[in-house]
Amino acid sequence: MPVFTNMPGPELRIFANLEELSHAAAARFAEFCQERLARESIFTAALSGGSTPKRLYEILGGPEFSGSIPWGRVHLFQVDERCVPPDHAASNYLMMREALLDRARIPPSNVHRIQAELANPDEAAEFYVQDLSMMFRPRAGEIPHLDLVFLGMGPDGHTASLFPGSVALAERVKWVSANFVEKLHANRVTLAYPLLNAAREVIFLVAGHEKAETLRQVLEGRHEPERLPSQGIRPGDGRLSWYVDAAAAGRLKKRAGSAR
Ligand code: 6PG
Asked: 154 partner at 20 to 30 Å CA-CA among 8, 166, 193, 216?
């Protein structure tokens, strides 16, 4: 059982391990999906890459949730992508496809991929904005509200492909940014703060002791989003939760409940 209390502000849930964390995240996806679909025609979610959410995607794609998630009414987006072809070992899309998309038989038209293999990452970002616009059809000046966003956090405090000191951190208007990441000598394409912070619910998934000190600084330290971009995630009207395993929570003073 996770340590959990229901308090206002960002919520912190601490699980024994990644397996428990992943099951809880899958259960929240299914629950929120059902809740929204009782009122709306579709449910929209953006999924991160990296290694932490892989188990969550496998669980969502497996038999436990096959009956409770009407995938035909779910649209999945990518939080960010590395600038490689979609069948490249480093592709976030490939990880999602293998763990979830193929296994859950999600209609291909419900999967919104970032075309980060294009030679020009700005063009990939622009295509992704067009895809989002077609789906959400916002009025001029309006920002789409994704229902649910799963984010990860790197040991350097980055989230999505919003890396410390990178140009995209300053984005206050655009929904999607092409972002050159100096320490990786590589381009990424990423949802930017305006879209991420317009989501109805954002859940960070963080596991492993190598992230414990960064997690402490992000949740309990000074507000320095230039250095710790995860701190820039503050959904305006949405809910923010941190699902962390015991190893990542190892340096937190506050053990559960409100994260800040
Ligand atoms: C990516 C991501 C990224 C990820 C963090 C954490 O493309 O790598 O989407 O933001 O969530 O780097 O990654 P891990 O889960 O592998 O630690």
From this structure: 8
Q: Please tell me the distance between residue 50's alpha carbon and the centre of ligand 1 in angstroms.
A: 4
**Residues linked to residue 239 through DSSP beta bridges, in sequence order:** 201
Specify the range with the lowest mean pLDDT, choosing from 76-80, 179-183, 215-219: 179-183
Instruction: Residue 176: name the closest of 139, 146, 206 by CA.
Output: 146
111-112: strand order across its sheet: 111-112, 74-78, 43-47, 148-151, 201-206, 239-245, 11-15, 257-258
Query: Which amino acids bring their CB within 6 angstroms of ligand 1?
Result: 48-52, 79-80, 82, 92, 152-154, 158-161
pTM over 0.90: yes
258, pLDDT greater than 60: no
The tally of CA atoms less than 13 A away on the side-chain side of residue 148 is 26
Per-residue pLDDT at 58 exceeds 60: yes
Q: What six digits make up the tokens of 38?
A: 């009782």
Specify the 3-state DSSP secondary structure of 83: coil
Q: What angle do CA 235, 240, 244 make, to 5 degrees?
A: 140
Angle at which helix 18-37 crosses helix 54-61, to 10 degrees, equals 50
Average pLDDT (154-162) is 98
Higher pLDDT, 6 or 158: 158
Complete DSSP assignment for 120-162: -HHHHHHHHHHHHHHHH-PPTT-----SEEEE---TTS-BTTB
Q: What residue owns the CA closest to ligand 1's atom 3? A: 160
Residue 66: per-residue pLDDT: 80
